[in-house]
Design goal:
The structure is a homotetramer. Chain A is an alpha/beta fold and about 475 residues long. The first copy, chain A, has 13 helices and 17 strands. A seven-stranded mixed beta sheet of chain A has the order 4-12-11-10-9-5-6, with helices on both faces. Chain A has a four-stranded mixed beta sheet with strand order 1-2-3-15. In chain A, a hairpin with a 2-residue loop joins strand 1 and strand 2.
Amino acid sequence: MRQKDNSLRKPVRSKAADDDLLKLEARYCSWGDTVHYSKELNIFDTAEGIYLYDKKGTEYLDLQMWYSAVNFGYRNERLNNALKRQIDKLPQLACQYLHEEKIRLAAKIAGRAEMTFEEKGRVHFNVGGSAAVEDSLKLVRSHTGRNLMFAFMGGYHGRTLGASAITSSYRYRERFGHFSDRAMFIPYPYCFRCYYGQRKETCDMYCIKQFEKLFETEYHSVLNAKTGRCEYGAFYIEAVQGTGGYVIPPFEYFSRLKEILGRYNILLVDDEIQMGFFRTGKLWAIEHFGVVPDIIVMGKALTNGLNPISCVWAKENLISPKVFGPGSTHSTFSSNPLGTAVGLETMKLLEEEGFAVKVPKKGEYFVSRLRQLMKKYPQIGDVDALGLALRIEICENDGYTPNKRLTDAITEIGLSGGLTAGGKKRGLVLDVGGYYKNVFTLAPSLYITEKEIDLAIDLFEEALKKGIAATT
Amino acid sequence: MRQKDNSLRKPVRSKAADDDLLKLEARYCSWGDTVHYSKELNIFDTAEGIYLYDKKGTEYLDLQMWYSAVNFGYRNERLNNALKRQIDKLPQLACQYLHEEKIRLAAKIAGRAEMTFEEKGRVHFNVGGSAAVEDSLKLVRSHTGRNLMFAFMGGYHGRTLGASAITSSYRYRERFGHFSDRAMFIPYPYCFRCYYGQRKETCDMYCIKQFEKLFETEYHSVLNAKTGRCEYGAFYIEAVQGTGGYVIPPFEYFSRLKEILGRYNILLVDDEIQMGFFRTGKLWAIEHFGVVPDIIVMGKALTNGLNPISCVWAKENLISPKVFGPGSTHSTFSSNPLGTAVGLETMKLLEEEGFAVKVPKKGEYFVSRLRQLMKKYPQIGDVDALGLALRIEICENDGYTPNKRLTDAITEIGLSGGLTAGGKKRGLVLDVGGYYKNVFTLAPSLYITEKEIDLAIDLFEEALKKGIAATT
Amino acid sequence: MRQKDNSLRKPVRSKAADDDLLKLEARYCSWGDTVHYSKELNIFDTAEGIYLYDKKGTEYLDLQMWYSAVNFGYRNERLNNALKRQIDKLPQLACQYLHEEKIRLAAKIAGRAEMTFEEKGRVHFNVGGSAAVEDSLKLVRSHTGRNLMFAFMGGYHGRTLGASAITSSYRYRERFGHFSDRAMFIPYPYCFRCYYGQRKETCDMYCIKQFEKLFETEYHSVLNAKTGRCEYGAFYIEAVQGTGGYVIPPFEYFSRLKEILGRYNILLVDDEIQMGFFRTGKLWAIEHFGVVPDIIVMGKALTNGLNPISCVWAKENLISPKVFGPGSTHSTFSSNPLGTAVGLETMKLLEEEGFAVKVPKKGEYFVSRLRQLMKKYPQIGDVDALGLALRIEICENDGYTPNKRLTDAITEIGLSGGLTAGGKKRGLVLDVGGYYKNVFTLAPSLYITEKEIDLAIDLFEEALKKGIAATT
Amino acid sequence: MRQKDNSLRKPVRSKAADDDLLKLEARYCSWGDTVHYSKELNIFDTAEGIYLYDKKGTEYLDLQMWYSAVNFGYRNERLNNALKRQIDKLPQLACQYLHEEKIRLAAKIAGRAEMTFEEKGRVHFNVGGSAAVEDSLKLVRSHTGRNLMFAFMGGYHGRTLGASAITSSYRYRERFGHFSDRAMFIPYPYCFRCYYGQRKETCDMYCIKQFEKLFETEYHSVLNAKTGRCEYGAFYIEAVQGTGGYVIPPFEYFSRLKEILGRYNILLVDDEIQMGFFRTGKLWAIEHFGVVPDIIVMGKALTNGLNPISCVWAKENLISPKVFGPGSTHSTFSSNPLGTAVGLETMKLLEEEGFAVKVPKKGEYFVSRLRQLMKKYPQIGDVDALGLALRIEICENDGYTPNKRLTDAITEIGLSGGLTAGGKKRGLVLDVGGYYKNVFTLAPSLYITEKEIDLAIDLFEEALKKGIAATT
């Protein structure tokens, strides 16, 4: 599947050139994005399959794949070619006019939703996950007349002002004034660290019962029992939390949640930006949980990272021309032809690749190898996986207390490119998530092989050992 | 500059195929975008230079170029190739890591701003103009502690909830609940239809004086004279209004505005999403007006429409790492490598093409031809241009009363592809803007030739005649 | 009407006692109210008719009467007795239960509105003007589904957070965070200082036409022309501005305003807190202007200042039990029996006293005397009156530039109690209002005699002369 | 203490007169207040001590005393006389000027706070509890720069828009649009019906630990751990919940809460409007719990219901002239002389009456009698008391399931005036509160005698029996 082009892996810049670049960066780039979370700055030059390469040609095995945007591997030939074909055909078109790929992509996605959920619906495009989240907010606000949303602690839905209002971390809001539409954040079923201090074995979903309690009397603040109306229009979920640390909920959780929401006409909006497109072994992660969302938001891997195109799918009653008519919302690049062409090819690829079978299998193998590591290292407090969405929770020796220091050390060791597992100098690219920034959230290429998994495990173990040594 | 590839212009689908597509569209596509503003739906298949082509190979001369996103012509070879090169090199990279093109693009833009405005500053990337507007709002809110903004009547800054709050049209907000950060909208100096009923010759900028009056006493609602603090953090402007109808302000307007804003520490945010990148003959339209903005927002033509990448430039004191540190905001695709690579090539192209000279010249020729038409047709109430941002105001026979019906008729006639000027069947793609939806906002390719301008004029005149006939 | 009880006018405290009190005040009282606007602090001990008395028995002629709360004179015997009777009968009752005076007072007010406006309606009680304004906001928000309101520059509706959002002065909001429901403030027809720089003789109500222009296109920011819906639910007015400086609008202004509001279903809320109860010679000042408000808010003089009871009257369709049912809003003291008893007596008194004839006559005499002064003193830029709501605008020698310094000097001279006009040492109590704090807003007792007016004129002229001397 | 004036208790109106009144009420009174919560409407005519009387002279023993506004008995002679004296002396004075009683009352309250809490502070007056709550919001917003507040489920702080935003019941907000400053509502320690389903004996204050958990990571939504700043400015509490059902928290609860708030600079605002002035046996209920609030809000019983005056006390650093200077907020009637005079007399009375000893004693006797009833009637699920704030929770036969139907029946039986306990026809006035509207919240006069308590118990038991009979 993945092409090999060794010419690309040669050093392209000298150390001095890198230093010059870093000087420019220091002077002209905003540091407001996430680059400077690290003290060491990596400049990457090429990429292929599951690997990134820096100027010296050092190979970095990447276990985060642009936070699950590149599910199908760097420089995936099929998708790259689809993009190139469209460049030569119709690279630009005002979104006020139609082009074939837009229609076919919408039809593929909505057709798939109809098949899976037995619900008619439509697709609305935009660019960037946040913009699609904003579109979903418009659908909800238009349908319910409500500005307020429920969302999860640990949830992440983007960084526009509207998306920040439903994203849990207060750090994202602090300097930006008053957020009039701030969500009510509900504890996510993060059973390893239950918000309520319950144990999964005995709790009988205490957390769901606590949510239900909100509706018991008007004095619990959200319901007018006399009219049956709720102050909140929708519940925004990630079926598996992304930034929150690839946390997988108990399987019955969402069906019980949906049952409560249904009683009070609260919509369920499923943000699949990070977990969609077979990251978890299904097109949408929510499919694991037996519930039908009212709205699905998609982005990232829709184009394998080749174009920021994103979209919402919504049930017909929320989005039919009658209720969401011409001009309801739009953006210049919303259904841009390059994006739709790649997205369409992605959908075709998904129909052919058998990920529904392969991903769970690979995931099982990967997590079984992680479980072996867990037995050896008390610092691994938890590992879990749904498909190829995997998590490793790094703790103190008690296997529970979050250990951000060790997590950071492992990350830096991986990025420094000095690991030797597998017989040559390599780096390891890891993403850190979790409420306490102590969780490695692994999102490898869905094409990863067992051999590559083994190499990943070896590199991780090496980094872990060095990290432990460095922090004790 | 533009390649010719006749193979692409052949019919690619039958009429029946188009009908099938339209059926899919009717069923699976959201109608909430702007496609269904028209009753007739055009499906385009290829594009080149200044032309779009439908399935039958009909050639449409395009005078709107994706609302000024494709300033450098459809399928511009140089920019297309830059995109392809990057696809082969590093098409994907998490924005947490650096790549060369991001840094060089930021340096080019900030360097240019430093040269032009004698102000150090930095560039922050995102995707889509609205998202960059949201980033600018964060910069303003962080710096001023204010949620509220001034903006112009007729102004357009995007469709996220945050951008809708500073975009004048209430239609964009109506169904979406309460907007807590709704801007105060100030009349734009649209002298042809002065909000205050004044005449340009005698008004001595009455409109600016009215704005200044807001600050005369605390009872005018925005100032605490005792502390000198204003309730509003910034003024969002388009130096030339885009959606508002390519309205060009009097040249001294902005310097007088800036002087007032400066007194009360109100920032000036210049939205160049539509007018930037030499649409008006300068990199940024604001350069015509002798003022230094605090923040510039850019998008669209930065990549000639090949990637939705956008950015804000801000003065150092607003965006230095000290005040806008790591994690202030980000988005997955913000500095995506495909976008930065094309943007970088665009900046290089701009350094080489001499648009600063060519665009005004072409604009002058174009507007002189329009002025000839205006003399012939009383229905043309006003024409104006700054560079290749041109406007034609369609009116009743009095040359003043907005005539939306005729405007729509001309547009539909153009899109129907049945014009014959220039000796073959052709279409004409026009964009309608303006407060009364009676303004053709022309944004031709900056590579348009005199001959092509002549053809455009002929096609427009033909459509105008037919339109007049059809509506009287 | 007014009793005389000389025993009360004797000195009741020594100078030392006053100093002790001021020490306590400095330590234990919040300075956040308006007491410390003055540097000199007056402690008053008794009051009668139009006079206040301090500890030394100095007599202060009061021309502001608690900002028009004490329209019927200090210690009005009839109203005092009504209060005492109720104290002895039913001084307390939970507002969940009924008492006769509540019902009779509501019936009197609503009956009067029905007669005057030919509109059925109902009365809802509360305490304090701001709380009644808040109730009116609830009625508007419930009926229109809109959070946003129009209000006037120079308007004042109270100091709760909700009332501050519709009160023009930003000073009242500055330190209190973000106001999500901030009104859009429209220039009031303050013709002496026209916001638009127009002249009354020639303007043909330019200001109304400017307001109307807001609705001309959706790009003017408040209307969706396609649905005919406005973003704003109501327009809050004072028929004659109070704090704004007793400004009297042209007589046709409100009928033209109402006509525009009617087109877009925008409610008209008439705040009569300061101008109601015959201050202007009619029960409600709006009666002068030939329009029917949708809601009237009343307070202050309803009890002659003996109880803070306030109320709203609203048209039946806004307040019928069907749309504003039990529990919509309430407050502990809302229809407190002491307040309703005095209010009821006030309404009876109004039926008997012939103020509709007397007040205009007194007002004419008073303003004619002021006009004489105006001819003598260039520093009096404007005088005007509607009934016994009078204004004197203090200016520089040009008769126009606001002169706050002289205004303050006159005020202090009045409060110092050292005037000698009328043959003994007296003080003069004046209230300062206006956008530039240079307007004396006179609200004398409606029982003021011609002789007392003459004395007031003499005292004012003396203070004016001294003030001019002190400030030049 | 209480005067007897039999003349007042005679029938004053005929049945027909009552019917006429009710017709007027039906037509002219807003039904939006709480009168029509009942289907049967009682019109009361006189009151004395603990009794209300209707037109027929029927005596109603009142166990709610205007929701604790009339702590010192109806027509308390001492307080009534204080009011009358002030009427004869200085009944009206603009609050811009000083009068002795204002200063002395502020000094008494602030002096008492200084003694009790060892904190200097100041008093700011207003009218109505809600308005004082609004003033406290201004103090909090000014000090913290935060619009958002924590408050309790079951909490009640008033009905202005600002107070509704921090009052739990959504019913109070539903029809009034979007509330941008909606509080985050935290479960109150209502141990009889623990929100978390815990048992008091074993929970170790699980609820406090849950609140503390909010601050554990930024992903719990309220804290930026990096800056230590919380999104919420203050926590609004009632030390004993009023409308919520006279719920008394565990004694250590507030000290543990305050410790957490202190860590993040979150203010504690103590709403004593209903529980202050010795209702619980102390001047402020919070005194029972060993914590020092930052702000105290008072109202109701401050004047024994004779004037709506209210106030906030705040710590010096929140309210000193430097941070809360002249003009920060005010209202016409804020420190009205009638209100301050009665308030001052109330404070003197409190110094002399020994309520700190008497109230707990009476409360103990009352609750012991209720406990006897509880043993007899399974329908009494819970009784509790702090001083003379008593609660009776009416349940199904299981002693737990809330029984609103029986509660309503008892209330109506009481109001119907047909009880015969104590040997004559009498009524019983009860107030219903609680999250499920099944709690009698008893607030008898603090002068109630043991004999009167016995009578109250007899009447209650009679009504209870009849209610049980009527509902089974």
